[in-house]
Recover the amino acids of this structure.
């Protein structure tokens, strides 16, 4: 029971003092009130003339606060009344003390909430939570342990040790290998261990701690860690109120830590996206350069080319170069897949074509197919290769690519598998001849597979007429219709 | 003016007790805690005792905290008395009104006992 002093109880301004004065007047006797040391607080010690003096104790709970000294036996009632007033005062103080504790808890919890709301760093959150827990709940040791988001391993993110001496053993009970921590983490329920030495989980293990209290750091159904306090003092014991408080702190901390983890993931993810975007841009520059260098001047021919990748890097490619006999060799193709993987395959294909010594379209496809199969890469590549002589005679071979068009007429080749699927695939050549005003158009599937807002494909029906236009006009028509894939158009004609 | 007096004004006995008990540790530093149960009694005590600091409830019979504060700061010329307005509301309007009548700070109930003591120590120039 909180201490109450007789001096305060009967101070000059107190209500009790008015009662004391009234009673003294009513008794009309010499009355004296003294504290336990005998110091007179009210009145004067009765004189010998007043008769046999008795001493009546004023008691509150177990404590004697002082005495009423008087020769009148009625003072026994006076002492009882003062004892009663002291008891009442003591109860009021106890209630006030409890209320102040609650006020303090409310403010510390509010303060913790505000602090946690402003923090996105797991260590700072842990430090803040542990500091507030320590203010609210007594403890000589404490720790916050958080599961790593990558491997689930527990890490100590905050700790304190206010006890004198070496407490390595105690730290074991507050560390990642503690059986208490493991139990709270597994069951996600707070726990009090008020006699550590007798707990069967560590029976016989000297740890220097007398009591422990642990709560899970929960967020929804996930438990991201544990907050624990321990006390090395001999008489220490934790209460249900302590458990509720620590649980509240655990819930707030768990949510804050989960938010911090999500935020860190978002930052990492944004950084990875930025890095990937930068890589794509770099790859795009390299690819544009490679494609430009893949086309060499071809005297005697007009070559009109357009390349519009759907994203930074594309999976289409083309290759144009003059033959030793004044002919023109052109290859157009499309690798499966998107992004950097497709771009790397395009680079590899352009490298193979540059080293190619044959000028036979079917043989070129045969060699390119074997090179791709040898690479062992996943996916496939479609390609169409054509060689045009200065006389207008031409020969082409097709590996699963869209057929070329001769002045608006589709040129059908024998069907064959795309490149990169099976080795030693034979591609049958097809021969033909073009007049001076004819035009051979090679294009990628980005043209017929352009898709409108109403989800309608551009399709092959309109393609034949479209191929009578320039490469730029063909590409523009497909792009404005709704580009879905890379668009590549090569338009070839004799210069003479 | 007695530099070591604090007046606690609240019509609710339990709140007076709470504030008193929260500030009790200051008695060890020689601080005297006075109490008043309404606005009029508060003004009488302030005139007579001239405390250095007043914890003043807003909603009180006879004379409310705003009126007491206004009287102390503007009418009695005791601007040096540090007045903490205590209210169970937390409305911005009340806060503005508190500023208008010259209150030094405005605290809401339930108050933070540690903040109460810290503020008193600071105003009285006592060490924490």
């Amino acid at each position: 029971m909180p201490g109450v002093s007789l001096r305060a109880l009967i101070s000059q301004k107190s209500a009790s003092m008015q009662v004391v004065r009234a009673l003294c007047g009513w008794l009309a006797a010499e009355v004296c009130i003294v504290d336990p040391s005998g110091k007179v607080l009210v009145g004067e010690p009765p004189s010998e003339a007043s008769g046999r003096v008795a001493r009546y104790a004023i008691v509150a709970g177990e404590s004697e606060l002082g005495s009423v000294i008087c020769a009148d036996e009625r003072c026994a009632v006076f002492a009882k009344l003062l004892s009663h007033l002291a008891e009442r005062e003591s109860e009021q103080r106890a209630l006030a003390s409890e209320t102040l504790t609650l006020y303090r808890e409310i403010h510390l919890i509010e303060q913790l909430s505000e602090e946690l709301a402003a923090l996105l760093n797991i260590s700072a959150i842990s430090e803040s939570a542990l500091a507030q827990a320590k203010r609210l709940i007594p403890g000589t040791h404490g720790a916050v342990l958080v599961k790593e988001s990558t491997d689930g391993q527990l890490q100590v993110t905050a700790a304190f040790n206010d006890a004198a001496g070496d407490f390595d053993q105690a730290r074991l009970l507050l560390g990642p290998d503690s059986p208490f921590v493991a139990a709270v983490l597994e069951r996600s329920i707070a726990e009090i261990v008020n006699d550590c030495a007798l707990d069967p989980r560590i029976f016989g293990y000297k740890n220097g701690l007398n009591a422990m209290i642990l709560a899970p750091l929960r967020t929804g159904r996930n438990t991201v860690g544990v907050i624990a306090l321990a006390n090395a003092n001999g008489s220490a014991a934790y209460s249900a109120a302590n458990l509720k408080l620590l649980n509240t702190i655990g819930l707030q901390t768990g949510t804050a830590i989960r938010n911090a983890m999500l935020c860190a993931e978002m930052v990492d993810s944004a950084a990875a996206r930025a890095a990937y975007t930068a890589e794509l841009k770099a790859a795009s520059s390299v690819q544009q350069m490679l494609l430009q260098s893949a086309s060499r001047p071809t005297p005697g021919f007009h070559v009109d080319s357009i390349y519009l990748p759907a994203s930074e890097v594309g999976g289409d490619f083309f290759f144009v170069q003059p033959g030793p006999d004044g002919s023109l060799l052109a290859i157009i193709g499309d690798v499966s897949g998107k992004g950097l993987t497709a771009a790397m395959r395009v680079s590899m294909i352009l490298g193979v074509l540059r080293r190619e010594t044959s000028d036979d379209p079917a043989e070129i496809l045969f060699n390119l197919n074997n090179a791709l199969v040898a690479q062992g890469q996943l996916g496939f590549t479609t390609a169409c290769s054509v060689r045009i002589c200065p006389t207008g005679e031409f020969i082409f071979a097709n590996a699963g690519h869209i057929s070329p068009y001769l002045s608006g007429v589709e040129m059908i080749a024998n069907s064959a598998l795309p490149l990169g699927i099976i080795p030693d695939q034979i591609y049958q050549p097809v021969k033909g001849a073009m007049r001076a005003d004819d035009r051979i158009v090679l294009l990628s599937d980005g043209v017929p597979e352009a898709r409108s807002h109403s989800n309608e494909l551009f399709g092959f029906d309109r393609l034949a007429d479209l191929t009578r236009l320039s490469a730029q006009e063909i590409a523009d028509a497909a792009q404005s219709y709704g580009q879905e894939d890379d668009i590549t158009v090569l338009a070839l004609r004799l210069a003479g | 003016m007695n530099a070591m007096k604090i007046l606690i004004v609240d019509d609710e006995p339990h709140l007076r007790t709470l504030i008193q008990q929260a500030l009790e540790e200051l008695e060890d530093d020689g601080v005297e805690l006075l109490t008043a149960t309404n606005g009029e009694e508060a003004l009488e005590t302030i005139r007579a005792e001239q405390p250095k600091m007043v914890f003043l409830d807003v909603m009180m019979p006879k004379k409310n905290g705003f009126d007491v504060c206004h009287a102390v700061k503007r009418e009695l010329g005791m601007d040096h008395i540090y007045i903490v307005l205590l209210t169970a509301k937390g409305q911005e309007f009340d806060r503005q009104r508190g500023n208008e009548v010259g209150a030094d700070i405005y605290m809401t109930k339930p108050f933070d006992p540690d903040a109460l003591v810290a503020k008193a120590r600071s105003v009285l120039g006592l060490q924490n």
Observations:
- Chain B has a mean pLDDT of 90.
- Residues 53 and 91 of chain B are 24 Å apart (CA to CA).
